[in-house]
Design a protein that fits this description.
Helix content is about 25%, strand content about 20%. By secondary structure, it is of the alpha/beta class. The chain has a single domain (about 5-155), classed as Rossmann fold (3-Layer(aba) Sandwich), CATH 3.40.50. It has a seven-stranded mixed β-sheet with strand order 2-1-3-4-8-5-9. It has a two-stranded antiparallel sheet with strand order 6-7. α2 runs parallel beside α3 (about 95-105). About 30% of the residues are buried.
């Protein structure tokens, strides 16, 4: 399976993570699945769907908000292998990616209180997401960042080091 399987066209690229979430998490060096057009930066450097962040090498502290669907597990596996990463995905606790990747490899999870209100690429706020979201840390440093970020929700540490 590849990114071409997503059938995402740049004009359909419309969801932006709220600026307040990015700000509270601290500075990222790379966003590996950023929108083409965005009203604010989520990192110093951005990969879009055209760049195919699954195939490119990652550097520094990474933010990963992968597309929901068949490829989510591939993104989370790369997050696991890379380590210095926070991923934002839907809290689909019944999925294989949640059970087999997140629960076995993550250092911490922050279950965000309420439904996230993403933004459109012009900066206007969209309606609430259809599902609850989680932030997942894949190393101890990012687990500490989640614990201390101030985003409302329930924090669970899965590993200490």
């Amino acid at each position: 399976m590849t990114l071409n399987d997503l059938r995402v066209h740049p004009k359909e690229d419309k969801w932006v993570v709220p600026k307040e979430i990015i700000t509270k998490l601290g500075e990222f060096d790379l966003d590996v699945f950023a929108p083409f057009n965005r009203p604010w930066d989520s990192a110093k450097k951005h990969f879009t769907i055209i760049d195919d962040g699954l195939k490119k090498p990652w550097q520094g502290r990474v933010f990963c908000n992968p597309p929901d669907g068949r490829l989510t597990s591939l993104w989370l596996e790369k997050c696991t292998n890379y380590g210095n990463c926070i991923a934002m995905v839907y809290a689909k606790t019944d999925t294989s990616y949640y059970q087999n990747i997140i629960m076995k490899n993550a250092y911490a999870i922050l279950y965000i209180k309420g439904r996230v209100k993403f933004h459109y690429t012009d900066g206007t706020q969209a309606d609430s997401a259809p599902l609850p979201s989680i932030l997942v840390a894949f190393d101890s440093k990012n687990a500490n960042a989640l614990e201390n970020c101030g985003i409302k929700g329930s924090f669970i540490r899965l590993k200490n080091s």
